[in-house]
Amino acid sequence: MIVPRQNGIVEELKRRIRRGDYAEKLPRAQDLAGEFGVNVKTLNKALARLVRLGLVERRRHVGTTVRRRETDEGNRNVEIIYNGVDSAFSHPFWGPVFSGAVRTLGQAGFHPVLNPVGHVRSQTEKLENYQPLPCGGRIVMGIHDVRFADRLKREPEPFVFAGDSIDGAKVPLVCVTARKAVGKTISLMLERGFARIAFLGDMQIFEDSDRSSKFLMWRDTIRRSMPVDPDLAVHTPPVIGAGAEAVRKLLAQASPDAVFIGFGFQLAEVEQALRDAGDPVPVISFDGALLPGYAGPPQPIRLPLEECGEAAAKNLLEAVSSGKMPPDIRLDALWLPENVPFRPVRG
Predict the structure, then answer these.
(1) Which CATH architecture describes the domain 179-302?
(2) Using CB atoms within 10 A as the burial measure, which of 88, 174, 292, 342 is most buried?
């Protein structure tokens, strides 16, 4: 396999070490030079760079061995990269994920270090805002960009994306999914006589993204029982105030008998907007990430957000210990059928 000279060799060997291709020892320099189509001098320069990065050790008569991660303070730090509207501590979705990760890291004797990149939407801004911190590994929350994942792949430390999936990238992932619970909830509501179940949420279609899959879950479940009325779906961005505005658009074009919303923190405002319009139909949240103090009806879908943070931290720590890329984990939402609403009887 021919790759660009020294830089390309370094990046390829870093990827192999992270994947665990070389459990203990790298092939001989002569063999690697032949594989990459370069002379031994160029290959040795690339290996010297890996030594400076702390990834390998070279000893006479032994060869090049993968360096086991030390337990010094630098490698005991875990960088948590966060992008969100609110603080990672108070965000209704990311807060529990963050808490689960921090608690698990602390119990294992590691030190979580928060590195917020600010609430920015463009890939370029995220990349420009991000400066890696010295650490033994990284957990990423609230970022869904392929370019950001590619940026982290250039670092020698392992990383895990936590919370939900990342669009169009194959990366170590611990995420939550409500697909089964949403399907069961909508199916039961249809059996109970609901016929005009609306959707308010992100309708942009992303590859392998749980944000857009909420819309697809709603659409596909409805489609199995009846034609989908496009007037029952309103694109709603994940910001406070957008839910109430979406209700006004929805009621101007349709008469729903229930509403599914993609972002739980909008639940209270959507319910209030429906009451203000004299149409207080049941509202169901896809993620159960409700604002503190919410006192409305209990929800039938609850995402295991703290458990997601815990699993992400455990996965990362295993990767730090083994030097291998961690496997993906998908956690199903808890379904509470006793909280599925009945169709209200209208006079």
Answers:
(1) 3-Layer(aba) Sandwich (3.40)
(2) 174
Indicate the DSSP class of residue 325. Answer: P
Q: 157-207 pLDDT, tens per residue? A: 889 999 877 666 678 899 898 889 999 999 999 999 999 999 999 887 544
Go through 234-268 and write b for each residue having 16 or more CB atoms within 10 A of its CB, e for each that does not.
Answer: bebbbeeebbbbbbeebbeeeebbbbbbbbbbbbb
Place of tokens 């604002």: 291
CATH top class, domain 77-175+306-331: alpha beta
Q: Distance (Å, rounded) from C-alpha 195 to C-alpha 343?
A: 10
Integer Rg of the chain from CA: 24
Q: How far is CA 270 from the centre of its chain?
A: 25
Model confidence pTM above 0.85: no
Kindly report which listed range (75-84, 95-104, 276-285) carries the lowest average pLDDT score. Answer: 75-84
Same fold? 77-175+306-331, 179-302: yes
Q: Which fold has domain 6-66?
A: Arc Repressor Mutant, subunit A (1.10.10)
Domain positions in the chain: 6-66, 77-175+306-331, 179-302
Contact criterion met (CB below 8 Å) for 43 and 78: no
What pLDDT does residue 71 have? 41
- The Cα 29–Cα 6 span in angstroms is 13
- Specify the residue for token string 């370029």: 124
CB 12 within 8 A of CB 153: no
292-314: per-residue pLDDT in tens? 788 888 999 999 999 999 999 99
